[in-house]
Amino acid sequence: MGRLVVVSNRVPAPRDRQQPAGGLAVALRDALSEGQCLWFGWSGQQISEHEKAERDVSIDHVENVTYATIDLTHAEFDGFYQKYSNAILWPLCHYRAGLMEYNRKDREVYLDVNELFARKLLPLLKPDDLIWIHDYHLFPLGQALRDLGVTSPIGFFLHIPFPPWSLMKALPGGTKLMQNMQAYDVIGLQTEDDARNMNDGFSICGVKARAQVFPIGIDPESFAEQAKAGEDLAEVQRLGESLAGKPLIIGVDRLDYSKGLPERLKGYETFLQRYPEHRGKVVYLQIAPVSRGDVEEYRLLKQGLDEAVGRINGSYGDFDWTPVRYLTHPVPRHLLAGFYRLANVALVTPLRDGMNLVAKEYVAAQDPEDPGVLVLSHFAGAAPEMEDALLVNPHDADEIAEALHKALIMPQAERKARWALLQPDVWRVTAGSWARDFIGTLAKVKRA
């Protein structure tokens, strides 16, 4: 097999290249450890328009991986990343077409940046490379590379959901985008529903159906070890002491409208209304780091969550009890692992998610002899693999309330039985198996 070339919107920052801290870098850790690899993408830096003509690809070598990055101008960042990728494609793919803010100029910038990526990547490629492009920012990149004469196998993986054609056709130029994706030899998505939606769209647009399912996972062994070691961390012990014996419900999500956070808080509030026996006897910790805080939709979301937390704590709290503990800053991964192990219940209720690895991390972090309970949305990509969680409709506050009550009173024997059924799938489908399966399928294209 030739060299693996990974292309993504963002490349890990220099400080994260020795020890991957999260996201795609952690998922690709095993794949990048074998042979020579190239990772190409945006540097995260913005430059002025007059510097545009002079920008070069920056190269950094870390062990067997070459990191190649380019800067974007302020206008490119705004049109490509902020607007077209995250104000059009992101809501559309999460079934929120009404939130799209379409402007043809932004689409042109999006296409221009994909062509820029192709031009800057081209001189770095070798004939026997396997090229793996990631996520919605780079839908058209495969075709841009083909237009420049690249004949290497090119794969594409979408980490977020893909909507049915009835929604996708709301995107101006959506048919052309689908047709351009025939440049890819292998296309991977997280779930059967997402692959079916994309293949239906291909059929309507006159493209051969080629989307396949490659579910992503975590590294469960290392995360389980991290969680067990986390029991001895001072911060985890402080959290445990602060609970004073009360059970802990935990939620961990990037602050985004796809995560169902307002609906989750409504469910928790309904839980306190319907089951007064739990008042003063349970703590809900919601960690929701702010993302895209300069976007109006996200500012309004945070404002609404702030008000909901204040209302719940004001209505139900007491001088010695705060019903909701609410953090909007990131918590390091090693601490989260310890927090998951401590938590009696994980509340994972997205309105729509590609996979949602928090659910898998929570299962991996549990003590097999005294595991907690996972409450999971039907609309998380992980749900079909995790049917022994307490599955809920995140739009139904009463259903969330009932699941929380059931989780908190569940006997230990049932908790252990449910965990024992969830555990094998978390260990079977891992980040390593996901990467191996996809790369192996792409490599067969080359041999053919």
TrEMBL record:
UniProt pathway: Glycan biosynthesis; trehalose biosynthesis
Protein's recorded name: Trehalose-6-phosphate synthase
Enzyme class, UniProt record, top EC level: transferase
Membrane-spanning intervals of the chain: none
Subunit annotation: Homotetramer.
UniProt keyword list: Glycosyltransferase, Transferase
SUPFAM superfamilies cross-referenced by the UniProt entry: UDP-Glycosyltransferase/glycogen phosphorylase
Transferase among keywords: yes
Tagged with keyword Cell wall biogenesis/degradation: no
Similarity section: Belongs to the glycosyltransferase 20 family.
GO MF terms held by the record: alpha,alpha-trehalose-phosphate synthase (UDP-forming) activity
UniProt EC number: 2.4.1.15
GO biological process, one term: trehalose biosynthetic process
The organism's place on the tree of life at top rank: Bacteria
Swiss-Prot/TrEMBL catalytic activity: D-glucose 6-phosphate + UDP-alpha-D-glucose = alpha,alpha-trehalose 6-phosphate + UDP + H(+)
PANTHER family hit by this protein: BCDNA.GH08860, TREHALOSE-6-PHOSPHATE SYNTHASE
Organism: Acetobacter senegalensis
